[in-house]
């Protein structure tokens, strides 16, 4: 994380944009103290940063001292839920900073933590970094992904009966590079989260993922986009770098798709977990191009037989079984 220069730069720019002189800042999840120091550099009056792991809190305190910021940053060795306004911090915060998300935003308890922080530790008009997050899904092809998570054999033994337990692939950045996931369609939104007014209620949605290229759908990749401030974003999609891993939900059996097909999926989440299941592959409707061409040519030929400007004769409408010597074109229009 500390070596993720794109992420560090994005947070630095977001803090410069949102922290105002005189602001009190609450930084949730101190780590090495980087975001707290960025907030101080951006002009905060004082930064209170909390860290529940004592050894990490102690190390962060030293890092902050080494950078000459001990008078402007206070490390609180507590979980944010245990912070008391008037005891641990003198007043509610103007800005709340956090980076407590996993590969699908939810796994580190961001929703529950920020729900409490924005309600109990922040001023009513407090700003948050990040502001919002979106979970996205897209169909992907990768034989290497299946070989990594569902090897057919080991030392000559068939392992296929065990594959049903390998449904969710948690890919490290190295795994992600090695698997070479090929997108078969664009990303589609699953859920959106407002971190300024977080909500811990569960949600469920069924959506269709478009396929714009032919191939074998091996998995559905779920990624996120986080808006830190207007125009400043971090993400972990197919073309994003950074320290975050990726999460892929493997299909029970690969689906052969063509452009225009749609993969129907159902996703649901609570405050800390995401699940996704594949319902079915909806085949693209076949275009009746040949039939349309035949009918067009047939109609032109019919008009030519009648002569220029002639109107088709009006005949009584009868059921096909009663129409003697019915013209194939007429049958088509029936």
Could you characterize what this model shows?
The protein contains eight helices and 17 strands. It has 334 residues and is an alpha+beta fold. It has two domains: 5-99, Vaccinia Virus protein VP39 (Rossmann fold), CATH 3.40.50; 133-282, Hnrnp arginine n-methyltransferase1. Strands 6, 9, 10, 11, 13, 14 and 15 form a seven-stranded antiparallel sheet that branches. A five-stranded parallel sheet has the order 3-2-1-4-5, sandwiched between helices. It is elongated and about 60 Å long. 35% of the residues are buried.
- Tell me about the biggest sheet? 7 strands, antiparallel
Number of strands: 17
Number of helices: 8
Assign a percent range to the helix content. Answer: 25-40%
In whole angstroms, the N-to-C terminal distance is 68 Å
In CATH terms, what is the architecture of the largest domain?
Answer: Distorted Sandwich
Instruction: Note the beta-strand portion.
Output: 25-35%
CATH superfamily of the largest domain: Hnrnp arginine n-methyltransferase1
Low-pLDDT stretches: 287-306, 308-334
**Structural class designation:** alpha+beta
Mean pLDDT: 88
Order of helices and strands: HEHEHEEHEEHEEEHEEEEEEEEHH
CATH topology type of the largest domain = Hnrnp arginine n-methyltransferase1
Which radius of gyration do the C-alpha atoms yield? 30 Å
CATH C-level label of the largest domain = Mainly Beta
Total number of domains: 2
Task: Tell me, briefly, the overall form.
Answer: elongated
């Amino acid at each position: 994380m500390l070596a993720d220069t794109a992420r560090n730069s994005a947070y630095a720019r977001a803090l410069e944009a949102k922290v105002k002189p005189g602001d009190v800042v609450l930084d949730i999840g101190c780590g090495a103290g980087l975001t707290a120091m960025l907030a101080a550099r951006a002009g905060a009056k004082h930064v209170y940063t909390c860290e529940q792991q004592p050894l990490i809190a102690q190390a962060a305190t030293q890092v902050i001292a080494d950078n000459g910021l001990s008078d402007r940053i206070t490390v609180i060795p507590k979980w944010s839920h245990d912070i008391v306004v008037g005891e641990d911090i003198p007043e509610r915060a103007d800005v709340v900073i956090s980076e407590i998300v996993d590969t699908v935003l939810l796994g580190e308890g961001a929703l529950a933590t920020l729900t409490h922080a924005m309600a109990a530790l922040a001023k009513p008009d407090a700003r948050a970094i990040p502001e919002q997050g979106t979970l996205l899904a897209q169909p992907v092809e990768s034989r290497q992904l299946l070989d990594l998570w569902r090897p057919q054999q080991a030392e000559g033994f068939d392992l296929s009966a065990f594959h049903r337990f390998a449904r969710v692939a948690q890919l490290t950045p190295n795994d992600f590079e090695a698997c070479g996931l090929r997108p078969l369609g664009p990303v589609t939104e699953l859920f959106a989260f407002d971190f300024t007014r977080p909500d811990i209620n569960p949600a469920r949605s069924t959506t269709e993922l478009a396929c714009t290229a032919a191939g074998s759908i091996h998995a559905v990749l779920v990624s996120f986009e986080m808006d830190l401030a207007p125009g400043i974003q971090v993400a972990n999609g197919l073309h994003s770098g950074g320290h975050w891993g990726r999460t892929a939900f493997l299909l029970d059996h690969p689906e052969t798709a063509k452009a225009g097909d749609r993969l129907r999926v159902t996703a649901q989440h609570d405050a800390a977990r995401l699940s996704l299941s594949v319902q079915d592959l909806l085949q693209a409707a076949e275009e009746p191009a040949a039939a349309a061409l035949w009918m067009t040519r047939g109609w032109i030929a019919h008009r030519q037989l009648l002569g220029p400007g002639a109107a088709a004769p009006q005949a009584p409408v009868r059921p096909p079984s009663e129409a003697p010597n019915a013209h194939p074109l007429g049958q088509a229009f029936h």
